[in-house]
Amino acid sequence: MLRFHSLRVAVFLGVALILGVTAGVILPSTTILLERSFVAERDREARNTVDLFATSLRERFQALIRQKVDTVEQRKRSLEDHGNQVVSVLQSFRGMAATGRMSETEARNAALDWLVSQPRSETRYILVYDGQMRMLVHPDIARLGQTLLDGVDMKGRPTFAAARADVLTYGNTFSTFERPSLDETSTRLKFGFFRGFAPWDWTVAIIADAEDVQRAADAQIDQMIRDLTTSVHALRLGDRGRAMIFDGAGHMVIAPQGGDAACAAVTTGAGGCGDLFHMLPGDLPRQRTTGVTPPDDAGDLVLYAYLFRPLDWRVALVLSRDDILGPAHEVTRNQALLLGSVLVLSFLAAYPLSGLLVRPLRRLEVRVRALSSQDFTRDAEPDADLARLIDDRRDEIGRLAGAFAFMDRTLREKIRELIKITEERMRIEGELAAARDIQEGLLPKTFPPFPGRPEINLNARLISAKEVGGDLFDFFFAEDRYFYFVVGDVSGKGVPAALFMAITRTLLKTSAEKGLSPAGMLAEVNDMLARDNPNTMFVTLFCGRLDLASGRLEYCNAGHNPPLLLRKGAAPEALTTVCGPALGVIEDMPYRAMALDLMPGDDLLVYTDGVTEAHNPQNVLYGEPRLFGIAEPGMQGDPAGFVDRLFDDITEFVDGAAQSDDITVFALHYAGPAEAASNPPAALRSIG
Q1: Distance separating alpha carbons of residues 665 and 647, to the nearest angstrom
Q2: Cα angle at 92 between 89 and 95, to 5 degrees?
Q3: H helices within 235-320, ranges in order?
Q4: DSSP-assigned states of every residue in 371-417
């Protein structure tokens, strides 16, 4: 027994000697490695910390810029829509004069009366002036007829004269300028949309206040600085490391927590935060955190900097080398004490303790392996062993058991929640599919639709950008010889546009049954849509009525894309005449019909803007030139084949890019009556 005890002591002493020699060799090299490791780790940690903060700063600033740009773009769209609506009304008055319903002077006076009656305030008003810079419409009625005094815009040009020149060149323009307020007590920053009305040599301006956009941006920058202050105060490494932000002139944008005293506490080489700024080089690289070499008299200072050029800010992080190496020295001291004791205790306690530790882990392993056979839609079966581990043990094993129980319970809850969400999503998808089927059921689907009518052949196709869309097409006969057809595009997409489309289609068919002309149909439908339209939705529409016996086509275009007339041996001709504004905007709008004579073999292509505005991954639009190129050979008596070729070309062009708008194409081939007339087609003319 004594021999075994002596042997155990000898073995123990031999092991202790080996451990001592090993520790004597390892500890010095470990100290060097630890110092290098801590320096490298703190350097990496400092750079990553500054990089993360710079990324947050950059994202905040970019979000601020995007929000400001979005606000300006939203203002521009609103002003442009308002200006276009005003010009559309002026065109209506001009149209009344053109059709003889009133004289030119009466039309101008009526238009001016309408413009003067529009609401006006500091935030938005209408201003109209002519080629002699005389004010025709102004919020201050007393100034009407006076010469418009010109200030300068943000580019230093005469505001209204330059805007008029741009309108004459480009059709419309935007301008930012300073202008007296309506009460003339101050000068305010304004933003205006200018559009010309050539028939009367007018320039229409929609003026809005722009100062609230700048105030909002300034408030956001102030809020960004307040938010960043919290982050800067939280950025620190070691006991004395601090972060701060300077501007280009050395002024403190965000001071470290504790101010100059905190900077001085880092090292004796810096009396305050201003001294740290002067240590930064003037040529800091962009988009990269730089380690700055401090001067020789800066003590044990370690400095990192990042230049944020958009605001000319410098993010600085200052550390003390003692803070960096202190933990390494502490680890080295403790390592010598712990190495022997940990190893000895490990040898003595490892075997008996391993059994105690492994036993509960084995029970957990059995429970984990059983997870694959569990039904997670039900609550877990009670497990007494697991409950005892959670209740009786307060160590890592107990926490691990608790974490496992929490994971099991959470996993079951999430799976039940996922099943519920999946069922709800399937229900919504089913409803949208049903809505799509209903919408498709409203549209003609059989082609050719009238095999017993050799006078015409046609084909049409509609592809929605979403489950349901806002495009429409329809066609039908009236009195056997008249063939009606309509193609429209509702503003917006999705379910609201689909409902508005269905209403428009029903109203059009009802109007056609009354025997109205295309112009009469659109006037009646426009009144019904505009009368109760709280969401200000509208629909552009092309409506035609073809006399199959004579080939005479009467049509009316309400703000829709111009159709293409395809004649044999001739280039495609766009029917660009607009007969009135889109339906649903303003009541009591006059619509005039146009007419032309189709010869046997002529084709007509009507489409929505989803064709020309289809884009590829590089955001290049399909465009009218490419459409003209496809249409130039004509349909060759086969509208269905032509529609297939057009959609194949669109699919090849977009190259997998997401569809952004509904696409509708209506192709009509006129074969002529039983005995086709040989007279040449009459020129395009107005009939109402």
Answers
A1: 9
A2: 155
A3: 259-266, 273-279
A4: GGG--TTSPPPP-HHHHHHHHH--SHHHHHHHHHHHHHHHHHHHHHH
Interaxial angle between packed helices 396-442 and 384-392, expressed in degrees from 0 to 180 and rounded to the nearest 10: 120
* Per-residue buried b or exposed e for 372-395, using 16+ beta carbons within 10 Å of the residue's own CB: eeeebeeebeebeebeebbeeeee
Cis peptide before 448 (omega within 30 of 0): yes
Structure confidence by residue, pLDDT tens digits, 458-492: 999 998 877 667 788 999 888 788 999 999 998 87
Measured distance CA(472)–CA(642) in Å, rounded: 19
More confident residue, 298 or 551: 551
Helix, strand or coil, per DSSP, at residue 465 = coil
Burial readout 435-453 (b: 16 or more C-beta within 10 A, e: otherwise): bbeebeeebeeebebbeee
Task: For 562-624, list the strands marked E by DSSP.
Answer: 564-566, 573-574, 594-597, 603-607
Provide the token pair at 164: 């008029």
CB atoms inside a 10 Å sphere around CB 313: 20
CA 63 to chain centre: 12
**pTM above threshold 0.70:** no
Average pLDDT over residues 14-20: 58
Mean pLDDT of the chain: 80
3-class DSSP assignment, residue 540: strand
